């Protein structure tokens, strides 16, 4: 199933940002997230195992919408598509990535941190963006400021998001979801505490969805 950027960002209020060192753990992690109530995950390309993990999950656990993060180059983008990514997140926005995204059907969600970058995104019909690094560039306050001149832009803030500030972001009309890694710590993954990950996901969603 191919979703557009809006569909991707409305899949869940929380998008787990995952760094995997071992492909063998990827499928168990995907199932743990799904069991907790989240059916989307961003696997970063920060490790050599990232692409293979995306490929494994996309083939063996189609219930999970899996995409690539930390896509910084044209080759990253091509590799992500070839691995079966359902979407691409980038920490920034460049002409190279924009041009490459137009060659593919999966959604490209670029990272922005300034008004100028948002304008570049919008000029290229990219109205769903990742605010990164969210808390470092102004957090909820800057998103409130962006809502005035850019009422059509929707965001997935990522970077510094946790259970203490998650609803500061999700309460904003221009925020569809947040990205975070608190439920997928390397320690829990390496210790194979997947049931604990499921419990954290479940409790996180209850916090994120509260009125």
- Report the major sheet: 4 strands, parallel
Structural class: alpha/beta
Output the helix-strand order. Answer: HEHEHEHEHEEHEHEHEHH
Strand order of the largest sheet: 3-2-1-9
Number of helices: 10
The mean pLDDT is 96
Euclidean distance between termini CA atoms: 31 Å
| Poorly predicted runs of 5 or more residues | none
Radius of gyration: 16 Å
Number of strands: 9
- Helical coverage, percent range: 40-55%
Shape: globular
Overview of this protein structure:
With 211 residues, the chain is α/β, with parallel strands linked by helices. 41% of the residues lie in helices and 14% in strands. The protein has helices spanning 5-9, 26-36, 49-60, 74-82, 95-101, 115-123, 139-147, 166-170, 186-190, 194-208, and strands at residues 14-18, 40-44, 65-69, 88-89, 108-109, 111-112, 128-131, 154-155, 178-180. The strands form three sheets. The protein has a four-stranded parallel sheet. Helix 2 runs parallel beside helix 10. The radius of gyration is 16 Å and the shape is globular. The model has no long low-confidence stretch (mean pLDDT 96).
């Amino acid at each position: 199933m191919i979703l557009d950027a809006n569909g991707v960002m409305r899949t869940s209020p929380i998008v787990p940002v995952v760094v995997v060192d071992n492909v063998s753990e990827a499928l168990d992690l995907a199932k743990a997230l799904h069991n907790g109530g989240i059916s989307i995950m961003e696997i970063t390309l920060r490790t050599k195992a990232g692409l293979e993990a995306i490929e494994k999950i996309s083939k063996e656990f189609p219930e999970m919408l899996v995409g690539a993060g930390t896509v910084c180059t044209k080759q990253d983008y091509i590799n992500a598509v070839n691995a079966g990514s359902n979407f691409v997140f980038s920490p920034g926005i460049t002409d190279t990535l924009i041009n490459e995204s137009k060659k593919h059907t999966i959604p490209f969600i670029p990272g922005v941190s300034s008004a100028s970058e948002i304008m570049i995104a919008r000029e290229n019909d990219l109205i769903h963006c990742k605010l990164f690094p969210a808390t470092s560039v102004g957090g909820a306050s800057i998103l409130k400021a962006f809502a005035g001149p850019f009422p059509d832009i929707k965001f997935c803030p990522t970077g510094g998001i946790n259970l203490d500030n998650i609803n500061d972001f999700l309460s904003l009309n221009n925020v569809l979801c947040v990205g975070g890694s608190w439920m997928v710590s390397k320690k829990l993954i390496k210790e194979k505490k997947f049931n604990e990950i499921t419990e954290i996901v479940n409790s996180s969603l209850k916090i994120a969805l509260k009125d």
